[in-house]
Design brief:
Length: 302
Amino acid sequence: MIKNFLLALCMGAFSANLYAVEYSKELIASAQKGNAQAQYELGQLIYHGKGITKDKKAGFAWMLESAEKGYVPAQISVGESYYWGIGTIKDKFKAVEWYQKASAQKSTNAIYLLSQAYIKGSGVQQNIPKGNQLRLQAAELSYVPAMIDLAQAYRTGESESKTAKDLNKSFYWYEKAANTGDRNAKLNLGLMYEEGEGTAQDNTKALKYYLEAAQKGESVAQFNICRFYFDGTHPLKQDYESAFQWCKSAALQDDYYAKLFLGRMYAKGLGVKKDQAMAVKWYKQVHDEDEAAAYIASSKQK
């Protein structure tokens, strides 16, 4: 009854807006005829308000229709909606039921979500060994979030999943994830090479992965390249102008330490013309740092 009401609400209150989106006309017709993929895609449009008025409940109703037909992306979305209580009631047990249905169809995303449920005991009786086995399964099936999660667990030693610290295994999984092109994995692989964690210390390889991550927009990697240029860390020679450019890119993405370095570089004229106003601008954004606080205070006295 509720589902039918929501479907009616969707087609009634939002039909005008839906049909105003030209590319959705065929999509709506296909969804109305029962096409599971079309129902899911239409549900996503409504759920997220893409081109039409946002309505979480109506969007959820369409995705539920699709999920009940066995469409895996919809099953995962319905599970997530139940898990967080968005567009429907919050029910972690129902969320797990949908993850299980999707994982039965070999969805790596669902397998990973199910692993987290078992590790946390969220929506299902806690079973850490089973959760770890499922996370490993998802990672071995090349699901990047699972690979990175596993790498991080091994890197620090994760109490929640009772995973012992093992830097060699951490490096292995970061490298596997990095080989897929993931920028977060490339950043962390660079860090492990720089620190010699789980592998021989190698600044050249660290820089290689920092550059690859930075080119994908990873701000911490951009700052690390700035740091290499600033300090003249092998294999780079000290180059303040290059350091400034990389720091600026990172700072514009809100990287904390890049902002600190920019303040320092403007204050001292390193790689850029000395500019007190710009130094204060960047230092103010990291004013809790002693260096920044001291410069801001001294500039007020001039």
